[in-house]
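Entry:
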Amino acid sequence: MEIKKVYSFIPLFFLTLTSFAQEDTTMPVIPSMRALHHDNIIHSLNTIATLKNRNDSVFPVTSDAVLNRAINKSVRAGVNSMRAFIERSSTLDDNAKYKWLRGVNEMLTGFINAYRARMIPAGELPELIKAYADAMKTEMADSSILDIIAEQEPEVGKILMDNYALKDNIGISAARDILVLKSCQRRPENTLSILSQFPNNKYADSLIIMAALRNQEQLYTYASVPDALGKRIRAVDHPLVKIISSLAVSKTGRMYFPFIDNLYRGKITMDSITPLLLQDSSYGYYKLLVRTRIEYVGRMQQGDTPMGMQVLTNRLKFKAVDMYINEINALHEQNDLNIRFKKLDLLTPEELYYLAVLGEDQIYTSSFVSGVYPRIIQRMRNPATDTLLMDLHYDYYKKFIKMCAAYNTLDNFLGKMENSSAQKLMQNFVNGLETTETLEDAVDVADSYASISNQPIKQLILEQVQEKLRESKRQNNKREQVIYNLLNVIFLSMDTSNHIDISARLGIDPVYTMPSRLLKDTSGRIIIQQFSYGDKDAASYFGAFLSRFNNRNWKIIRKPNWVEINSVNAIPITIYANLPLDEKRELDRRAQDSLISYLDEKGLAPTIVIHRGHSYYLSETISRLSPSAKVVLLGSCGGYQKLNDILNICPQAHIISSKQVAAGVLNQSLIDAICERLRTGKDLDWEQLWISVQQKVSAGYKDKFDDYIPPQKNLGAILLMAYDKASYN
């Protein structure tokens, strides 16, 4: 809707009301029997004059002064002209005058209700008055108002069609069809929703075909419903609509739907897919999904847009997780890798690749590091790893690089291609971060940089970030500037010789230290909550945990579902740790919930949260995580993959996590160091704390501790914090 309408309608209004302008607009004496109708109209005009303007992105309007002036002059004058015309008419009897006065008021109240419901812009009011005047004259001449409604915006047309005085016009049915058509043309994404109210619309078949070409899955949903619109869809004689309709009424239609584009183009038949749906042929179905995805991505690079791409991707992800990842994850305690990963025996490198990138959120560290990744490398026909990406048209390559970096396999992956290819790949990895709506790619770049040990590759990434920053300044792209400037500052700060105070430079809370004062509640106490789970390892780590506090500095209080550990004669600290009760009966979850309820009831907000247990429990902890947490220790394998989930709940949290295999002894060492520093009144200086723990770690655990990431090296988290503070508008 153009704003200029609001400014231009005043002279236009008087020019277009020619039929009334020639009448005597002096208000005649109003009979008392119709006085109430006139009073209602005046009341509606006064109500409109008091309506508040709004700053609406869909229906923008001008200032109150312009709107009210327009109402007081043109709208009020036009309505009064209609009132005078009705009263003076010698061709209207009393009943007809009642009818038209009621109609005028209904038109005004229709606008008021629509405006308050944010369904019509203020600028359409004069258009509505003009259209109603024209429709009144046309109806009085027993002619169709179709052309009048067809010229209007749908909001105006709807008010006219719903009007008491116009509802029996000979053109009203055809006008309704036109109005539905215009509504669908304006909001194509709402076509089927609109048609569900008007399934017998004259233009329904054409609109259904357009909807099929636009959103096949949406049409599938509507075609499967046994109502009037579903029946209308199934009756449309168009090849794509017919395919979708046939799938919609089939019990297994969803299984065929990912291939809708190739079915429509005749590249594949339903008969060729059907055998793959059998349980014992499920590998063939997954294989077809992968092959089709690769084909579609190749077509997209040529400018084509295959139908049903998102449906295909969703189905591929579901099958990857359901058929493969869940099984190899479930066998994480199986030491014989041939047994654990037998399910992967038939998969090609391409099929394994999609397991990784689409199952990123579900795959365990060991499943990727010991199972999927090595099998990708072993089964490649060409040992140069960049050929795999080429065969896949570089689909999800940024996600795969990020995963390799997070799991310490990136150096290995890059080392299996020519150096020039590796450099180009990493440059492209850094490019285009501003083109996506989210910061996901930028966070992946930041996290990957922190994980890369190959110094030439790190330098290459830094130089590419700096080149993109210079380019963004030349092009004056503010969002691009912000993203690459943040990455540049963050990356440079990793080198202590640059002496960059990242907190001061980016305007964020300190990342190298967590002041103890920020961890205290109003009473000066620090609350720590530990989540424990009843797996077979719990007996050893929980016993070791309690033993560390069995000394004169701490007092342990045992409760039915948790333990409470209080510091003695020092900075007040209370640790609440639920008991790792039987996981099979979910008693461990009940203990956690019981503890959370107790903390809520007592008004105790934990500022430090510790997760103990395997990675497959981590989502449970995150779902129960308190937003008050300022320090989060993820004591499980691959916790590094869940940083974004934590930050969505606790945006400023300092997070400690492992990129690969966590160890109970290392988790306990970190807990000991944190608690002792706080007990003695010290801040959590992460660099100092890290060095102290590192010095105490035995030789057998040093490699594992190297995979633990301290808060100041969670670069993706720092980027998110800084971006929230940055302004580029």
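The first helix runs from residue 4 to 16.
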